[in-house]
Write a structure and sequence with these properties.
The complex is a heterodimer of chains A (about 200) and B (about 425).
Chain A: H1 5-16, E1 20-26, E2 29-34, H2 39-48, E3 56-64, E4 78-86, E5 91-99, E6 105-107, H3 116-127, E7 130-132, E8 161-166, E9 171-176
Parallel strand pairs in A: 2-5, 6-7
Antiparallel strand pairs in A: 1-2, 3-4, 4-5, 8-9
Chain B: E1 7-11, E2 23-29, E3 32-39, H1 47-52, H2 56-64, H3 71-86, H4 92-121, H5 125-145, E4 154-155, E5 158-159, H6 178-184, H7 192-214, H8 218-224, H9 232-237, H10 243-247, H11 254-257, H12 278-305, H13 322-327, H14 329-340, E6 348-356, E7 359-367, E8 375-379, H15 382-387, H16 389-393, H17 398-408, H18 412-416
Helix pairs in contact in B: 2-3, 3-4, 4-5, 4-12, 4-17, 5-7, 7-12, 12-17
Classes of the chains: A alpha/beta (about 200), B mainly alpha (about 425).
Amino acid sequence: MAFTHDTIEGPLRAKFGDAVRGISEYLDVFTVEVAPEAVNDVCRFLRDEPDFAFEQLIDVCGVDYLEYKDYPADAPRFAAVYHLLSLTHNHRLRLKAFVPEERPVVPSVVDVWNVADWFEREAFDMYGIIFEGHPDLRRILTDYGFAGHPFRKDFPLEGHVEMRYDPDRGRVVYQPVTITERNLVPRTHWQEADEDG
Amino acid sequence: MAEIRNYTLNFGPQHPAAHGVLRLVLELDGEVVERADPHVGLLHRGTEKLAEHKTYMQALPYMDRLDYVSILSNEHAFCRAVEALRGIEVPERAQYIRVMMDEATRILNHLLWLGAHAMDIGAMTIFLYTFRDREYLMDAYEALSGARLHANYYRPGGVNRDLPDSMPKYRPSKWHSEKDVKAMNAWREGSFLDFIEAFADYFPDRIDEFETLLTDNRIWKQRTVGVGVVSPERALQLGFTGPMLRGSGIEWDLRRKQPYAVYDRMDFRIPIGASGDSYDRYLVRIEEMRESVKIMKQCIRWLRDNPGPVRSDDYKVAPPPRAEMKGSMEALIHHFKLFTEGFHIPPGETYQAVEHPKGEFGIYMVSDGANKPYRMKIRAAGFPHLAAMNEMAKGHMLADVVTILGSQDIVFGEIDR
């Protein structure tokens, strides 16, 4: 069975109404945008409904839209993005939930797919998105005692602190970074580039 | 009576069986594991963030450093994401080269896995044999790209250059006589394809040799049969992909189910396990190596008969030939623009996955129309596997933790990214 706009929208709208914010297709994959508070219910529905049967959660990640070109200023800053895979029907689906900076909270889907555990920890670590109901929302990739969320767009590439060995104190210490970012290729956009028109 | 308490043991981050920099906090009851808590991130380099500050072509070599034993498969996923978003056509010959090298990479990965895994459990000899055979493939990498490991060979729109017509040869020295060198150069007299074909003819017998050392070895079976059993239902819940999923008896292979490049034209089988234990995962990977050789041979045959371009002729994304730049102003401009500013990708997002030797390796790329990715998320195959460590190790002995870790085929470059 191949997905069409209607076969996705129909059952989801019937069940969740306005919590389904929109459905779009790009490069053969459908993206369903849902209200953050409905994420867990929608995921459970997508897993259990035989027409969808998304047995596997492939990935969960955060996206920070702070510097996205022409992004509306009043739109929520972060998105939690879920990639689902159905082995039965051999298709994929992308689920997106936008959350504002003031309250970046999404219900956890660990109880739907156990694999979400570490993925959600990572998204929390990197973007500060809080997954409500997660059994153990600790940092995962950054150092013990790390401050901030490094993949946010307002976090500098070189970071805030660096580590060095202090011979006087005989141990490793943190100090403010002494390097600056060296960016030799400026970020330019499609429209500005005359070659692409 | 003395109070009996659980014992917490710190395994790693510097431990020869930790396959890199894994810190594993184990709660033990006697010698039985009650809880395993992997602490990862000691190799975190922020690849995803770095890529946001690099043009697409500059970000490509970072892919090599993720899973540093399956280099070209990583690059393949990245190139596919860029190609999908920009709509780049890849010449057929480049697709065949990619498939051939992906399979060579799979063998390279499985050989390292087999040697290291067996050595972890106590079989020393096999390590020497697998590393002997890896050397041939690393020589192939070197002839192709100039680097034994970090090849940086694929490009959005094809591959960097066509297969070389000759192989580098050994020269006589104080240590190797004329006669030795002649034997060492036996495979290297012809082209790159001759060399790869000689390897493909030689290798299946070596797999048999590995199997005589392990498959029916009673110590090997004692150490792996029934260790780290994962049922098919749990494997899906835990997000397993690749040999880990197939070891649990689910026939799922992206090369077959969602074919990319020219895998739909290849004839190969998908081995699956029955019981989902470490031994089955071992058997699956051994069989995968045999299938990889078969695919490589099909590619070699096609590549011999079909010369052609290996890079897109869209000079906005691939550099024009050097000769053309000498005479054409436009070619020179394209070259300059490409290597300074890079190319732009229209706004949009995509997720492209490949069947990596370890499982599904995917790139989720978001572009806002710039010459650099806006967001690039790497879906590492090993990440969910390691996350399942707690469940797989629970109730097993401490020594089995090493078996389970080995059978997961963990490389920290991709887990920590």
